[in-house]
């Protein structure tokens, strides 16, 4: 039988299904947040305790006393914003060339760039680690910014390319006729028109860089270590402390969760832009 | 001052010769219209002059200086685009001022020039608005304003009226003609609409497949088309072409007679015909007829003609205005 989403029962079924999917996706985060307020004993209690436990903040105070959360958080901010801003400079110029002066090979180049994202990072871990060691970039913010920027560059170029494609070429040509040089054409005409696209590209990239755990864990130890390393430091050496680990994780994801929540409109628009006219 | 001369200008895209080689002289202050069917290369030619496309070879002389390799900004030309191409994030004021800002003019000069252009174009009340809050005609005027303030050597118009509705198009046509009379600046205007070409131009350049078919004053093209293509393209409704015995009797391959150059009689005449459709416009009547032994023809009669479907009529062409063409479509002397 065909489900009719417009009939009242269809609508209800559709909503229930959407809620189930939504809750399933949200549940791990909720569970993490709940666990962070439990004592270590409550955290491993069987059957699991939902709300009926002794709420406590001791995990948070313990963590903030034990390790320097703000240093890790600052590194996360520097890495994600740094790689995004550098990436933007390269991606804007690259997407400009591809969108407004395409050649026969532009589509191939774009696909090739994206295909590098399909390779598992571990495949290049050894060469990159050795390069970092020889160049003295291990545990440096600069080295990590470079890796994160290069890793996310294909996605930034793709996103900006689809945005720029929507901007009529005539307008840029009008600017050229009006005497604008190439940098002025990009700054005064292209970028202001592409603000929504650039904003969502930035947001997505900041989130991706914030959450990146493979390179940040493998190439840092302490100086450049961001919040991913902060979480990881609670995972094993002293046995598994679920409540502390959850509190550390909650602290690590909270900033980006808030940013993501407030900018979800932009993000959705960014990810689906160009998909429909 | 804006005299433009094209010397053997060529443009190829890959293996395709879009403009196989054009020579053209445009005098200072002239209103020149490039006209031709879509894909004839008229917009490409305009973009070559503007500098938005690079020439493959040839010279583009602007005031006797070869500008073929100069950037668009250096050529001192202004362009009005078909899509208006206004900057959507700027107010009307800033749209018009943009070129002056790029040229590094002082604020006072910019203010004066923008206000002046706005006055000429009736845009004073709209200076604070964004293009999105304007009507099609107003947007077109902003695009023209942006072109005027830079005091260019010549204006380039790329089908500027094709996005407007019919009534507005007639108005803007008059406004642009009026503007030319007022500014006396060279204008190059691209259109596929032969009515715009006929009504606006000092000189029409008819293009086909990247080649210049004929250059001349509007009435010259109408009365003395150089070939069958120009004869068919200029004039509306289109010229009737008759081949076969009727043409052979007149010592040519093809005879061309404009719809308005027939005398109509219901008793006698040269060509007997049957009316298929009569279009009564009031001021004139278009008769689509089937002429015996010739085929379909279009006749234009002034005023209201009491004819309708199936009526028998006789047509007599004005002997002075018959055009003759040879087998290569070239016009023969009358």
From TrEMBL, chain A:
TM ranges: 12-34, 77-98, 110-130, 142-164, 185-210, 241-262
UniProt keyword annotation of Transport present: yes
SUPFAM superfamilies (alphabetical): MetI-like
One Gene Ontology cellular component: plasma membrane
CDD domains, sorted: TM_PBP2
Major localization listed first in the record, in broad terms: membrane
Keywords tagged on the record: Cell membrane, Membrane, Transmembrane, Transmembrane helix, Transport
GO biological process assignments: transmembrane transport
A Pfam family the protein falls into: BPD_transp_1
Subcellular location field: Cell membrane
PROSITE patterns in the record: ABC_TM1
Signal peptide region: none
ABC transmembrane type-1 domain residues: 73-263
Topological type in the membrane: Multi-pass membrane protein
Protein family: Belongs to the binding-protein-dependent transport system permease family.
Protein name: Mannitol ABC transporter permease
Species name: Thalassospira profundimaris
From TrEMBL, chain B:
Keyword ATP-binding on entry: yes
Family: Belongs to the ABC transporter superfamily.
Protein's name in the database: Glycerol-3-phosphate ABC transporter ATPase
Keyword check for ATP-binding: yes
Top-level taxon of the source organism: Bacteria
Matches recorded under Gene3D superfamilies: 2.40.50.100, Nucleic acid-binding proteins, P-loop containing nucleotide triphosphate hydrolases
Pfam families: ABC_tran, TOBE_2
Phylogenetic classification of the source organism: Bacteria, Pseudomonadati, Pseudomonadota, Alphaproteobacteria, Rhodospirillales
Record PANTHER family: MALTODEXTRIN IMPORT ATP-BINDING PROTEIN MSMX, MALTOSE_MALTODEXTRIN IMPORT ATP-BINDING PROTEIN MALK
Molecular function, one GO term: ATP hydrolysis activity
Signal peptide positions on this chain: none
Keywords: ATP-binding, Nucleotide-binding, Transport
A Gene Ontology cellular-component term: ATP-binding cassette (ABC) transporter complex, substrate-binding subunit-containing
Sequence ranges assigned to domain ABC transporter in this UniProt record: 4-234
């Amino acid at each position: 039988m065909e489900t009719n989403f417009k009939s009242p029962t269809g609508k209800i079924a559709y909503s229930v299904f959407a809620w189930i999917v939504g809750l399933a996706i949200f549940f791990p985060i909720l569970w993490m947040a709940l666990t962070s307020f439990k004592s270590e004993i409550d955290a491993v209690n069987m059957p699991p305790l939902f709300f009926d436990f002794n709420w406590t903040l001791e995990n948070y105070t313990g963590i903030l006393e034990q390790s320097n959360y703000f240093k890790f958080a600052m590194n996360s901010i520097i890495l994600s914003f740094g790689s995004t801003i550098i990436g933007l400079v390269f991606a804007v110029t690259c997407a400009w060339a591809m969108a407004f002066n395409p050649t026969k090979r532009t589509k191939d180049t774009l696909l090739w760039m994206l295909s590098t994202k399909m390779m598992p990072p571990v495949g290049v871990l050894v060469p990159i680690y050795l390069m970092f060691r020889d160049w003295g970039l291990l545990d440096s913010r600069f080295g990590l910014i470079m890796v994160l920027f290069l890793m996310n560059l294909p996605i930034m170029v793709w996103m900006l390319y689809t945005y720029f494609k929507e901007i009529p070429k005539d307008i840029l040509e009008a600017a050229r006729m009006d005497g604008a040089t190439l940098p002025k054409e990009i700054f005064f005409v292209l970028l202001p028109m592409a603000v929504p696209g650039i904003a969502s590209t930035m947001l997505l990239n900041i989130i991706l860089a914030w959450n990146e755990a493979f390179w940040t864990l493998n190439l840092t130890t302490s100086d450049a270590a961001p919040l991913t390393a902060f979480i990881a430091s609670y995972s094993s050496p002293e046995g598994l402390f679920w409540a502390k680990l959850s509190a550390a994780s909650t602290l690590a994801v909270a900033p980006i969760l808030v940013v993501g929540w407030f900018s979800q409109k932009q993000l959705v628009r960014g990810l689906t832009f160009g998909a429909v006219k | 001052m804006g005299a433009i001369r094209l010397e053997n200008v060529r443009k190829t895209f890959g293996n395709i010769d879009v403009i196989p080689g054009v020579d053209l002289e445009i005098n200072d202050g002239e209103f020149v219209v490039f006209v031709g069917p879509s894909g004839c290369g008229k917009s490409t030619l305009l973009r070559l002059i503007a500098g938005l496309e690079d020439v493959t070879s040839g010279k583009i002389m602007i005031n006797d200086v070869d500008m073929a390799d100069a950037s668009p900004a250096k050529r001192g030309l202004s362009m009005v685009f078909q899509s208006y191409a206004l900057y959507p994030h700027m107010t009307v004021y800033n749209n018009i001022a943009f070129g002056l800002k790029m040229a590094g003019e002082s604020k006072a000069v910019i203010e004066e020039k923008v206000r002046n252009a706005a006055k000429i174009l009736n845009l004073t009340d709209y200076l604070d608005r964004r293009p999105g809050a304007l009507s099609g005609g107003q947007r077109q005027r902003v695009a023209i304003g942006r072109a005027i303030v830079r005091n260019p050597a010549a204006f380039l118009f790329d089908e500027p009226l094709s996005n407007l509705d019919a009534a507005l198009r007639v108005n803007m046509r008059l406004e642009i003609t009026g503007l030319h009379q007022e500014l006396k600046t060279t204008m190059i205007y691209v259109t596929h609409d032969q009515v715009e070409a006929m009504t606006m131009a000092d000189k029409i350049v008819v293009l086909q497949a990247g080649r210049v078919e004929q250059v001349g004053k509007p009435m010259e093209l109408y009365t003395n088309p150089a070939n069958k293509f120009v004869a068919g393209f200029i004039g509306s409704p289109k010229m009737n072409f008759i081949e076969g015995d009727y043409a052979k009797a007149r010592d040519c391959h093809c005879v061309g007679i404009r719809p308005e150059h027939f005398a109509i009689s219901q008793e006698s005449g040269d060509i007997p015909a049957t009316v298929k459709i009569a279009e009564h416009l009031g001021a004139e009547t278009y008769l689509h007829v089937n002429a015996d032994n010739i085929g379909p023809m279009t006749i234009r009669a002034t005023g209201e003609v009491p004819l309708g479907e199936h009526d028998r009529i006789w047509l007599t062409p004005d002997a002075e205005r018959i055009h003759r063409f040879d087998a290569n479509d070239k016009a023969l002397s009358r």
